[in-house]
Amino acid sequence: MPEPMPDLPEPAHHELDSMLSRKFGKEVANYFSGSPLNRVSFLRTDHPFLSLALKHPSTSFLLFNNLNPLIVSSTKLAFASFKDVEPIIGEDIYSKSEEDLIKEYNSSKYIPQLVFLGLDDRNQDGLVYKDYYKGAPYFALDITPKDPIKSAAETLISSLETKGVSFSKGRMHISLPPQEAAIYAESRHLLDWNARNPFCASCGHPTFSVNAGFKRICPPRDLASSMTNSSASPDRPPCATRTGISNLSFPRTDPTVIMAVVSADGQKILLGRQKRWPEYWYSTLAGFLEPAESVEEAVRREVWEESGIHLGRVVIHSTQPWPYPANLMIGAIGQAIPGGEEIHLGHDAELEDAKWFPTDEVREALQIGTSGLGETAGPQYKEGGLRLPPRTAIANQLMSAVVGGFLGAEPKI
Amino acid sequence: MPEPMPDLPEPAHHELDSMLSRKFGKEVANYFSGSPLNRVSFLRTDHPFLSLALKHPSTSFLLFNNLNPLIVSSTKLAFASFKDVEPIIGEDIYSKSEEDLIKEYNSSKYIPQLVFLGLDDRNQDGLVYKDYYKGAPYFALDITPKDPIKSAAETLISSLETKGVSFSKGRMHISLPPQEAAIYAESRHLLDWNARNPFCASCGHPTFSVNAGFKRICPPRDLASSMTNSSASPDRPPCATRTGISNLSFPRTDPTVIMAVVSADGQKILLGRQKRWPEYWYSTLAGFLEPAESVEEAVRREVWEESGIHLGRVVIHSTQPWPYPANLMIGAIGQAIPGGEEIHLGHDAELEDAKWFPTDEVREALQIGTSGLGETAGPQYKEGGLRLPPRTAIANQLMSAVVGGFLGAEPKI
């Protein structure tokens, strides 16, 4: 399966050190994690709460057009207010209970996707609910102009553009501070999942978004059928997702392994490259974890399949949410067994090249050769030298851990 | 979301120590991992290879009826030969290329689900392919009796039963040696995923199994439509899954966090229980990782939502595949922050109870109070004492790590 792509730009505009510092002991917090929001997931079915959250003066809406977020600049998200979005979502979509909305389900009605992201309790003027849950509510909303919201969405977009904000042009143009990146990642992952799953994989009928954007169900009745044919029953055939809890109803997150591989003597690092990458650009190997694999097994399988190298010890390093579209990157560091270091690219056709690099060369490239995929490397970089992904990519963090001596305190194999 | 259930029985019949030994350094290999098979995933589209594998004398088929595997006894899988299954799957379903099979796709034809699991290279009489890929092939096959294979499946099942093998009666009745458990886990996860996804979540049309059971695609043509109406075009409307790589086409694995929580002073362990569990039975907390969370964030959120406790340090311990239906259990150990240890069950209604247990009480219960959920505890257990899940459950391994001093070598928060 395809390798996830580390293609975020180098964040020159803000300091990553505070985020990447080892808060909570030895934990490494990667880019896209570190959200300031309390998700209060158990309140997602509580429509009186959601109704208050929707209209509270402290509430922010992150708007998306075809999965691109509204931004002030590539380093700052833009947020809208309830008044901005009211012409699109109506006065209060949470005025009825979830149960009642399911009874009235009509698949022919387009409802713009809204997701409740959580509460930011750093805001002292936020909502207070049941004396206990406090903070400024955040929502994500898809306002891609399509019928019947086309006209209202276009009006809003024009009005926003006069204020100097606009939708990002793809992910290459975002380089957000870590906490905004985490809010964007949650939004994008959920909006993409909802957009990608309009039908039930179990029975083929249209699905309906509930739980404030965190669940899609296959309703037992659909009033659309009786609209076109008044004698038709709104009842649908039985569906397996209705008779028990099905994972199909919940957001999908794909566990992915990504690993820095060191030689048996600890002096070299294995890196690979894909054909479409810029010249001299390499990164760590990666791939999807398969059914019934532990993380260590997935790491060994992927490394052998892509490079022919046999790994012994594998240690999990850190994890990174990756919302393109739905990955959990599980970062590991693995060590080749003596005699298992010969590179063979013939198993799987995924990599154009894989090579052992001396640790010192990787250390230098981490200092002068990193950048986003579409960017140029820094001023100290010399043509022909190794190029590597930026610090926002977990691949960079894994290589940094190796050159920083991550495995050094442990006995060699 | 619901908590995964540790309900495998205690494996009295075989020794887990060899599997759970820290092979490859500090790695803990949990039950359901440790497969002896090389998946050679890049050969799943290679029909000449699959055709040889299907009919090789060393080949084994693990048969399933409604997701229950064929067994000799609760401690031993039973395998069938190609001759056994030929009346059900035909002479060679891989005689045509995948491309040709997609062209001939007809959604009205039922094809029993077959999954290529991998090669067991411990078998010296196994298949040899391209001089490099060696071993005895393993397949999983769903022979649930339904038209048009009903009669052939029933004949095979009768014939197998006269040989003294039968289908397990649910998962409570399986207690396999670790390597067989891993083969079963891969089979069950893949067969369940295929059975659960007969329709395309993107467009609602029937899907087709390819890549030897590891991919489901939405074919552009379906000959079924022209069978019922000869003037109907077999062409289907466009589908987003056809215009790029979509994760919807690949098996789903749900990352799940499960965590042993220790008090700030390291002297107590937090355990919770669900209402439906036997009296005195407790386990570690668990829940699904959500979109755009790191593992540590998911652990902290779940623990706070379910118990009100605030965690500081979180360390990943090990992982466990869990094929009911599709989880990757990511095991962690977390430590409460001073002042964040008060239990509050009012956020989320998931647990009936959560309690701090002295480490010594947990240590004793790990020795005398473990069993499968449906079993009785061992002879030394005294009524009223703490009961815990068996060693096959990662929850047990996490608690064992804590009482064994996993966090001890580190500074306290």
Automatic annotation (TrEMBL), chains A, B:
<dbReference type="InterPro" id="IPR015797">
    <property type="entry name" value="NUDIX_hydrolase-like_dom_sf"/>
</dbReference>
<dbReference type="GO" id="GO:0005777">
    <property type="term" value="C:peroxisome"/>
</dbReference>
<dbReference type="GO" id="GO:0019677">
    <property type="term" value="P:NAD+ catabolic process"/>
</dbReference>
<dbReference type="Pfam" id="PF00293">
    <property type="entry name" value="NUDIX"/>
</dbReference>
<keyword id="KW-0520">NAD</keyword>
<feature type="domain" description="Nudix hydrolase">
    <location>
        <begin position="251"/>
        <end position="379"/>
    </location>
</feature>
<dbReference type="InterPro" id="IPR050241">
    <property type="entry name" value="NAD-cap_RNA_hydrolase_NudC"/>
</dbReference>
<dbReference type="InterPro" id="IPR049734">
    <property type="entry name" value="NudC-like_C"/>
</dbReference>
<comment type="similarity">
    <text>Belongs to the Nudix hydrolase family. NudC subfamily.</text>
</comment>
<keyword id="KW-0378">Hydrolase</keyword>
<protein>
    <recommendedName>
        <fullName>NAD(+) diphosphatase</fullName>
        <ecNumber>3.6.1.22</ecNumber>
    </recommendedName>
</protein>
<dbReference type="GO" id="GO:0006742">
    <property type="term" value="P:NADP+ catabolic process"/>
</dbReference>
<dbReference type="InterPro" id="IPR015375">
    <property type="entry name" value="NADH_PPase-like_N"/>
</dbReference>
<keyword id="KW-0460">Magnesium</keyword>
<keyword id="KW-0479">Metal-binding</keyword>
<dbReference type="Pfam" id="PF09297">
    <property type="entry name" value="Zn_ribbon_NUD"/>
</dbReference>
<dbReference type="GO" id="GO:0035529">
    <property type="term" value="F:NADH pyrophosphatase activity"/>
</dbReference>
<dbReference type="GO" id="GO:0046872">
    <property type="term" value="F:metal ion binding"/>
</dbReference>
<dbReference type="InterPro" id="IPR000086">
    <property type="entry name" value="NUDIX_hydrolase_dom"/>
</dbReference>
<dbReference type="GO" id="GO:0005829">
    <property type="term" value="C:cytosol"/>
</dbReference>
<dbReference type="InterPro" id="IPR015376">
    <property type="entry name" value="Znr_NADH_PPase"/>
</dbReference>
<dbReference type="InterPro" id="IPR020084">
    <property type="entry name" value="NUDIX_hydrolase_CS"/>
</dbReference>
<dbReference type="Pfam" id="PF09296">
    <property type="entry name" value="NUDIX-like"/>
</dbReference>
